Amino acid sequence: MLALRTEGLTKEYSIGFWRKRPYVALDHLTMEVEQGEVFGFLGPNGAGKTTTLKLLMQLIYPTSGGAWILGKPAGDLGVKCRIGYLPEHPYFYDYLTAEELLTYFASLFGIQGGARRARVAAVLDEVGIGAERRMQLRQYSKGMVQRVGIAQAILNEPELVFFDEPMSGLDPLGRREMRHLMLRLRDRGCTVFFSSHILADAEALCSRVAILAGGKKVADGKLTDILAFELRGWELVVANVTPAWLGRLKERATGVVELAPGRFTLELPPVSPEPTIAALTEAGATIVSLNPIRDTLEDFFVRHVASAPRRHSEV
Amino acid sequence: MGQIWNIARGVFKESVRDRVPYSLVLFAVLLMAASYLISQLTAGQDLKIIKDLGLASISVIGLLIAIFIGIGLVSKEVERRSIYSLLSKPISRTAFILGKFAGLVMTLVVNVGAMTVAFYAVLAYMNWMAEPALRAAWEAPAMDVRLTIPIALSLAQLTMVTAIALFFSTFSSPLLSALFTLGVWTAGHFNADLRNFENVLDSPVAVYVARTLYYLLPNFAPFDVKAQVVHGEGVSAAHVVLMLAYAAVYVGALLSAAVAIFRRRDFK
Amino acid sequence: MSVPALRARPGISAAVGLAAALLMVSVAIELTRERVVSEPPAVLPTLWMRSPAVMDRLALEFDAVASDVYWIRAVVYYGGVRRSEDPLKNYDLLHPLLDLTTSLDPRFLLAYRMGAIFLSEAYPGGAGRPDLAIALLEKGVRLNPNRWELLHDIGFVYFWTYRDYVKAAEWLDRAARVPGSPQWIKPVMAGMLARGGERSTARLLWTEMLRSDERGMQDIARIRLEQLDAMDQIDAIHSLIARVTLATGVRPASWRDLIAHGWIRGVPHDPSGTEYVLDPFTGRVTVSQESGIFPMPDQLEAAR
Question: How far apart are CA A261 and CA B202, in angstroms?
Fold first, then answer.
């Protein structure tokens, strides 16, 4: 059974007051997410990622198409017991404490009494909220609110969890913790579906991704398949280069950056760098590091996404 | 359903933490205490004034609470987006609306109850301070149990106002909801005049329109039995039962409409 | 497979149907209550604001609108009390309502004029308080000294209700001295002094009122003129009955008697189209209670 499946999922809005022009927020999205994987749902802002998540949560209704979550149609109340959701820019009742909020949500899941207390405490520990859990949410920083959001998403030990921009509002330490959390969830058998416009996170976490732009899916599959393994070049860091060599370096390299006197970063074309290395070594330079430059997701984005037009449906 | 109870408890908890109902109820209690002092200034009519002021305070404060909280019941959650995480939980939109309504009614019952206790406390004090001769002259006893009837009817009226505020809250902002609710409340009080319009209007079409409006808009005037009870006259059981039934049915209609609207909304 | 792919947007018809049905039930309950429960004994509607000064402040810049609201309430109140079946009609709130209306908008001429008529008309058709009517009009005069209509109306109250023709003439004189007042006031005043209690004078005054700009005044004037005509007709019928009695020696006891003997062709109608009532015991003819011109003002003397 697939964790998530959509088929031709479409959402059109009518905007404008007099002549209602239809705005296609999501255009026939068809995708599949396997159980147990970390799936990245990527795209620039306004691509339709949040729209998709809201459709799956039945916060908005589709114009056409379908979606199945854990085999059941999206919106099924029983299924909602088995999933978690972290919205973008979460807001919770600021007059409650984190503990009270999670207790409230736990009661909505039907978790009662001692089990509820234990679960709430465990989840708060997991997201790293300590004594602050007894403070009212209105006193929390953005990062702490985000953690509470994550906490309420995993409160019911879901089989499938949806994170909308989970990294927003977190500092670098928080982001690292978040990444570790998502991997821990995967290790427990939970499917993690997250949307993001930050590609570095996806590269670090996901096995598979779908890329959305202008409401349309422009790519999906294994990350390694999407980003062709072709080399774009080499990055070579050398030290002890004599000024005489500088001119010659500039011939061979497509980019030269001076880091310190005699220390340079070179960008070499995607041919074998061995001749250049040999020549440098012979001249007395020290090779500090050599790294392949591959196609990044960002390059992919810039190539494919910037040019994707949004369909305007004809009335 | 258990979910309705969960939501209701949430609303009640919020109202307890909210400063506004507190201040209002405190104000009512102070007013009742003050009414005792006021009554000492007037000759004779002191008990009537205390009863009038007390019942009026309960009505007015209750109304303010109903409107204040009612208009934000749904729209606040939608505007602040807390509804996103809530509706992703296994709770139906219907249960959400009904739970919100139940919660506010609970809040009203508790607040009105508190004010009623304060009211009777002042009346008890009045009773204790008065001389037997004065007591005999009163039209109705100070600690008149029948005073609970106008309070109960007032509460029934408040549940109608709550339902109205909730209804508007499902599709408009708090400000607009407040205006609409006040508008309907005002119309509900002048409803009796609509009835009299047909004595004055000539055009049968206008009379028909006035009559239709009279019956469709809530009719609040018959809920007001304060004057009768203060003067010691009774209220027929039939009247009370019919008014309660009216309130219940009207509330049902409004809740159905609110659920209908809310279930279809896109939360952008 | 028949499992729906995703819950579609819920339909609205079921819930709206339920709402409409419940609304109808609530209407049914209201109707039941009105039938079953007798209205509580005359608990007067409360006028919370009686002080014009306070109301003025409360109304802020919406004085004119507030005054319109109070005017409507006054009219509806008057109409409601007048047409109610309660034998103990109570007009107590009429003056306060009119006082508030005119305090909020001191130039509200119609409120003064028609208010005075409502107040001065004999009970139970009106409040029966000509003193309050004059007080209201005098207030109007203080605030609008250049409106001859108000002075004229005061004179009218003295003429019509008090039958004090000297006082009436005094006020008409004051009205005539206001620049811009119509020419007919002086001659009418003179006639009043000469033949005060006569219908012809009244007819003159009401005919002039018919030409007023205010629709309300016109309506009242029309009814008054019909009443005057009715008085003439009643007098004519009375003299007919007297002749018949003299001629036959028996006083006719009903219209049928008169018709049977050919004295009249059919039952006489008053100017509003309703049949007159002939009291078999007293032989007096009166206007029917169902008539549009009921109740009739006190009989005025016919021209001598």
Answer: 102
How many structural domains compose chain B? 1
Does residue C12 sit at the A interface (CB-CB below 8 Å)?
A: no
Examine residue A312 and state whether it is found in any structural domain, yes or no.
no
Which range is least confidently modeled, A156-160, A302-306, B146-150? Answer: A302-306
Contact A73 C8 (CB under 8 A): no
The answer to whether A190 touches A153, Cβ cutoff 8 Å, is no
Domain of A130, CATH number, reads 3.40.50.300
* Residue B56 confidence (pLDDT) above 90: no
CA distance linking residue C172 with residue C261, whole number of Å: 49
Q: Residue C3: which of A55, A67, A73 has the nearest Cβ?
A: A73
Decide: pTM greater than 0.80: no
Residues A132 and A243 in one domain: no
Is the residue at A195 inside a domain?
yes
Domain termination site, one of A202, A223, A244: A223
SS (H, E, C) A213-250: ECCEEEEEEEHHHHCCCCEEEEEEEEECCCHHHHHHHH
A26 shares a domain with A156: yes
Interface of B with C (CB under 8 A): 192-193, 196-197, 199-200, 215-216, 219, 222, 225, 227-228, 233, 235-236, 238-239, 242-243, 245-246, 249-250, 252-254, 256-257, 259-261, 263-264
Q: Give, in degrees to the nearest 5, the angle at Cα B57 between B53 and B60.
A: 135
**Euclidean distance between CA atoms C14 and C20, whole angstroms:** 10
Range of the domain at A146: 4-223
Contact at CB, B14 and A95, closer than 8 angstroms: yes
From the list B32, B82, B38, the residue with the least C-alpha distance to B55 is B32
A47 and A165 belong to one structural domain: yes
In a domain, A301, yes or no: no
Domain that holds residue B34: 2-264
CATH code, domain with A235: 3.30.70
Look up the ipTM and state it: 0.82
